[in-house]
Amino acid sequence: MTRPITAGVDGTEESHAALDWAAREAVRRRLPLRVVHAWRHEAHEAAGGDRETQRAWVSDGVTAAVRAVTARCPDLAVSVDVVEGGPVEVLLAAAAGAELLALGSRGHGRVVGFLLGSVGQQVIAEAARPVVLVRAGDRPAAEAAGREVVVGQQGGAQDSAAALKFAFETAAARGATVRVVRAWTLPPVFAYSPGSLKLLDESGGMAPFERKALAEAVRPLRERFPDVPVAEQVEMGSAAQVLLSVAGHAQLMVVGRRAHRTAVGARIGSVAHGVLHHADCPVAVVPHD
């Protein structure tokens, strides 16, 4: 089954940027583009009349946005779905059948980064497929040669497998370099087990151990994508800080996500949360397999 690149639109400048980004990605990957808009009938006069009148008004707005995209990408296959329902439910359903879901997010520079509303937070935390956040100021020039696809790697070889796969697939479609970043910190001495101490001794210390772990995680992707240039980076520090230190050279930042459920709903991990709030490039959040 061919999965489309899907964009969620709501009429804002941010969602139009996400739509443009999704269209370019669909062209690169030779996939169809699906545009989804969630709406609810407002039963009061100021909202524009009966259900069908409102639906037609909403559809006209979405069609106008799509028309601008098809004018730039005339060979792109595009479908439009205006779905009545709550935005979280509609977007999660759309993401389930998509290669990825692109959403707009407000941003005001590197300090503030992405401002995630409750809809974006829930969709990112619960989506079964990758979700890409795109800010209003994103432009095609940001995807120019020399800018990398940056991906965070942590844990063992399987822990970041989904994020690495997404990053390599994206870089292959763009002719870009993948920079794989692994951050590490010194744990308390009492946290070491005899087994872990032996592994560290055999590796020559923490830094060589971390470099070896990164190389082992990346090796299968190097073999699968031999034409994709790869840079491996291991640094001491928090994962979010190390990733953000190279965000200025990234055309896309990719982070993994393991959702944590609490009494008030799903929450994304601290690394994804930090990158989403401070990176100034599009950010892809990829759920672990």
From TrEMBL:
Domain UspA: start-end pairs: 1-135, 151-287
Organism superkingdom: Bacteria
Pfam families: Usp
InterPro entries assigned: Rossmann-like_a/b/a_fold, Universal_stress_UspA, UspA
Signal peptide: none
Gene3D superfamilies assigned to the protein according to its UniProt record, in alphabetical order: HUPs (3.40.50.620)
SUPFAM superfamilies in alphabetical order: Adenine nucleotide alpha hydrolases-like
Similarity-based family: Belongs to the universal stress protein A family.
The protein's name: Universal stress protein
Species assigned in the record: Streptomyces fuscichromogenes
